[in-house]
Design goal:
Elements (H helix, E strand, L loop, with lengths): L10 H9 L3 H5 L1 H8 L4 E4 L2 E5 L5 E5 L11 E3 L8 H9 L85 E4 L5 E4 L27 H24 L2 H16 L3 H18 L7 H17 L5 H8 L7 E17 L4 E9 L5 E9 L2 H6 L14 H4 L3 E9 L12 E5 L10 H5 L2 H9 L5 E14 L2 E8 L2 E7 L8 H8 L6 E8 L6 E8 L7 E3 L30 H13 L13 H7 L3 H14 L15 H27 L4
Parallel strand pairs: 14-16
Antiparallel strand pairs: 1-2, 2-3, 3-4, 5-6, 7-8, 7-10, 8-9, 10-11, 12-13, 12-15, 13-14, 15-16, 16-17
Helix pairs in contact: 1-4, 1-6, 3-4, 5-6, 5-7, 5-8, 5-15, 5-18, 6-7, 7-8, 8-15, 8-18, 15-18, 16-17, 17-18
């Protein structure tokens, strides 16, 4: 039985069924899930039936496409409804999410704008597009809002895991004046009393009290604390020990957070459960770095919420539905299309377009599905207006839109008032698309690291294949930099890797490419689209179009390139321990010889803060006191989680600084 065959189940349904089990059955739940995975599954309309044995069936009813109540899961065994089978089926099924419009505000990926980026995993892992994106795991990279400031970054946490005063947000500065709009559309500013040029305050006048900063309601504080504790339990156990019971606790906390008005934190918690399941089932799309990023995000947001005010608080809360604002008439030019295939069970395609000023917009078609839907969605008609263009055709043509609505991420809406017709496209080397490649590379990288879209438009000279962390990369020269172009997604159903291998055999070819930035100490990006190596004016969507040997120049042959040696800071010593904790839990860092000499090496190269963080992380992992009888007391998962969070935030910020330095961009 594949989980893709089961309908999505709401988080609170799964949590409720697991919580209702007796302690004896909870111990057997993971084994029950593994056993249920071997049983045959059939679907009849809205009902999915699992043959538990020759005489017993388990049914899941999903009239609206997902299971929203425990009564919709029925088992025919003698112990029902208190049997293990119902909880096992719910735990094995995908998690139902309001994927299309949830806004988590992370800008890095998934049905919520958190967790996965088109076609794969977070940029940090280097093996998929930025994610943990996010039409589900994909809309965070659907585009860039034409206007609006970037979201605030994560705060730095002290080495001991405690935050300094004021580190998690402060009240916004009081304005010097109050600006309003008159009935005729003119702006009018009221000058404060006693300000230069303003009326003076007379004795006896009432003094207006200063605005009181909004505080976090107790229900949201409790919900954030529950999410932090549940995520800390996942970190404590690691992916190896985070079975269905631990996952259900985090799902319950996510459901509580959503009810309390914290949809962004709830969506991030669900992405951690999805990543944990992918790790435990050995999903080929699983990336440890992406799961570590998801854990860092949810722990960081839950940790910051009690201290947040103003805009920072609104950002942490997120919004349930993504807002779309009118944007008038648009004349768009197709850039490229990329497949979306996420570990959370969503697939489809995203087509990138640009207007005459170089602003980016996206058209997406993402829904529950697997690799087949990811490859087939490119030939489906785009859902905007009455146009009959497919995603593949739109990537080379143009679109004229009237009554357009646009989300903050740049995604085009498909409301009833939107009209769209086919228009002529433009070559990458012609206006207005050519201006995207005229922006200096350092400026593009600075924009991506500063919260803008993470696409890079590069003119490169291809080198050859070099060994990378996730397979062979394509070495290319770009403005004097040796750039590693990596595979955007490893799924064999997508032609990314095969195309990269063929391009590595045409060394010396000058190409115009589109890639996605991968933050790291070396210039590295995920290759998404490129010009044709032997047909000028033709461009390839490398996740959809498959190159053939006949498409290459006659003299093409495999070329082995030698990557230049870089003097890297040994930040990997801390990053490795951060990832080890996610995989193996606290116990892998509690051993006396676990990184004992790494702190000294970090201090020897000037990374004293990294060394202090590593020492605190190891100390928190090994902190197990005993009672008066010599028995071990339970560990403090909160201290370990805070120490891990401090290390993860520091590593992320230093890697971004190293990335900016590697590309020559200001940071």
């Amino acid at each position: 039985m594949s989980p893709d065959l089961l309908p999505p189940v709401a988080p609170d349904v799964t949590a409720g069924l697991v919580e209702a089990l007796s302690p004896r059955l909870r111990k057997r739940l993971d084994a029950g899930i593994a056993k249920l995975a071997t049983r045959p599954v059939t679907r009849e309309g809205d009902t999915v039936r699992i043959a538990v044995d020759d005489d017993t069936d388990l049914e899941l009813h999903a009239p609206g496409g997902s299971v929203t109540s425990a009564d919709a899961i029925r088992c025919g065994c003698l112990l029902a409804p208190d049997c293990l089978h119902r909880a096992a089926a719910a735990s094995a099924a995908p998690i139902a999410e309001d994927a299309e419009d949830t806004d988590t505000g992370t800008g890095t990926g998934t049905p919520d704008d958190t967790a996965a980026a088109p076609s794969g995993s977070a940029p940090a892992d280097g093996s998929g597009t930025t994610a943990d994106g996010s039409a589900p795991d994909g809309t965070a990279h659907d585009g860039i809002a034409p206007t609006g400031p970037p979201s605030a970054g994560n705060p730095t946490v002290g080495a001991s895991g405690n935050s300094p005063d004021g580190a998690f947000g402060s009240a916004p500065a009081a304005p010097d004046g109050d600006t309003s709009v008159t009935a005729h559309g003119r702006t009018r500013t009221r000058t404060p009393l006693d300000a230069p040029g303003g009326p003076s305050r007379r004795q006896g006048d009432a003094v207006a009290a200063p605005p009181v900063p909004e505080t976090v309601p107790p229900a949201q504080l409790d919900a954030a604390r529950a999410v932090f504790d549940a995520a800390a339990a996942v970190l404590e156990a690691g992916t190896d020990g985070s079975g269905a019971v631990v996952q259900a606790a985090l799902l319950r906390a996510a459901h509580t957070a959503r009810l309390a008005g914290l949809p962004r934190i709830a969506a991030s918690a669900v992405s951690v459960v999805n990543g944990t399941r992918a790790a435990r089932t050995a999903d080929p799309a699983h990336r440890l770095a992406a799961l570590a990023e998801a854990l860092r995000t949810v722990l960081g947001m839950a940790h910051r919420l009690p201290f947040a005010t103003g805009a920072d608080l609104a950002e942490l809360r997120g919004t349930v539905r993504m807002p779309y604002t009118p944007d008038g008439s648009l004349r768009l030019y197709g850039l490229f299309s990329e497949p979306v295939l996420t570990t959370t069970g969503y697939a489809g395609a995203v087509t990138w377009t640009a207007d005459a000023e170089g602003r980016l917009y996206t058209v997406s078609d993402v829904a529950p599905g697997g690799p087949g839907r990811a490859t087939g969605a490119a030939d489906r008609t785009v859902r905007i207006g009455d146009t009959a263009l497919t995603h593949r055709e739109l990537s080379h043509a143009g679109l004229a839109v009237s009554g357009a609505t646009v989300s903050p991420t740049g995604r085009l809406g498909a409301g009833a008032g939107v009209r769209a017709v086919r228009a002529s496209g433009a070559e990458w080397t012609a206006e207005p698309l050519d201006r995207l490649w005229t922006v200096p590379v350092a400026e593009q990288v600075a924009r991506a690291l500063g919260g803008g879209h993470d696409l890079l438009f590069l003119d490169v000279t291809l080198g050859g294949a070099v060994r990378g962390s996730t397979g062979d990369d394509l070495l290319a020269e770009c403005d004097g930099l040796a750039v590693r172009l990596a595979t955007a997604h490893d799924d064999p159903a997508l032609p990314y890797r095969d195309n990269l291998r063929l391009l590595s055999s045409v060394g010396g070819t000058r190409l115009r490419v589109v890639a996605r930035l991968v933050p790291g100490p070396l210039p590295r990006a995920l290759l998404l689209a490129a010009g044709h190596p032997s047909s000028p004016g033709t461009r390839l969507d490398l996740g959809l179009d498959r190159l053939q040997h006949a498409d290459l120049p006659a003299a093409a042959a495999p070329v082995a390139a030698e990557a230049p040696q870089a003097d890297e800071a040994p930040l990997h010593l801390l990053r490795r321990r951060v990832h080890q904790a996610v995989s193996g839990g606290r116990r892998v860092l509690a051993f006396p010889d676990s990184g004992a000499g790494d702190g000294g090496r970090l201090r020897s190269v000037g990374l004293a803060t990294a060394a202090d963080l590593l020492d605190e992380l190891r100390s928190a992992a090994a902190d197990r006191s005993r009672d008066a009888f010599g028995r071990l007391l339970p560990a403090d998962p909160g201290r370990f989680a805070r120490a891990w969070l401090a290390s993860a935030v520091y590593t992320d910020e230093v890697e971004r600084a190293l990335c900016a330095a590697a590309w020559g961009a200001p940071h």
